[in-house]
Design a protein that fits this description.
With about 170 residues, this protein is α+β, with helices and mostly antiparallel strands. Helix content is about 30%, strand content about 15%. The protein has one domain: Roll (Ubiquitin Conjugating Enzyme), CATH 3.10.110.10.
């Protein structure tokens, strides 16, 4: 797909505005910044584990990579901090509706309004991800093993979450 210089300038302006707004008015629960000051399309975010969840107290680093046709298409999100969660693939890719391509779901699982819409911002994405950490969707897991354990709600599931949230994600070791 070809994009004119004017279109790319608008995307850079949109992303620059979003990062400036987040720096000026931080949102509780996460921080965001550029990985490299020379690349507006690649961001680093750090999510603070939500209270009253197994992730509470953890710090979870992820990358957001914006496409050149943003906001028509969603960014990709990948956790860099190891995370055991039904909606996070073993390689760190985040799988939630808000980050799925816009339009009809060929499998009929998601409604179009649950998928990416150009009105979404980094803030709405991060709020959705924080919500996902607190309330996983085990019916459609990206990590099947984590999904099965989440559905079983057994002790090993809880121990695995604590080990990841506290041990790997910067919290105290046991």
């Amino acid at each position: 797909m070809y994009f004119s210089g004017g279109w790319l300038c608008r995307i850079v302006a949109i992303l620059s505005s979003l990062i400036a707004e987040l720096n000026k008015n931080p949102v509780e629960g996460f921080s965001a910044g550029l990985i490299d000051d020379n690349d507006i399309y690649k961001w680093e975010v750090v999510i603070i584990g939500p209270q009253d969840t197994l992730f509470e107290g953890g710090f979870f680093k992820a990358y957001l990579t914006f496409p050149y046709d943003y906001p028509l298409r969603p960014p990709k999100m990948k956790f860099i901090t190891e995370l055991w969660h039904p909606n996070v693939a073993k390689n760190g890719d985040v799988c939630i509706s808000i980050l799925h391509e816009p339009g009809e779901d060929k499998f009929g699982y998601e409604k179009p309004e649950e998928r990416w819409l150009p009105i979404h911002t980094v803030e709405t994405i991060m709020i959705s991800v924080i919500s996902m950490l607190a309330d996983p969707n085990s019916d459609s897991p990206a990590n099947v093993d984590a999904g099965v354990l989440s559905l079983q709600r057994d002790a090993s599931h809880i121990e695995i979450h604590f080990a990841i949230a506290e041990g790997v994600a910067g919290g105290p070791e046991w």
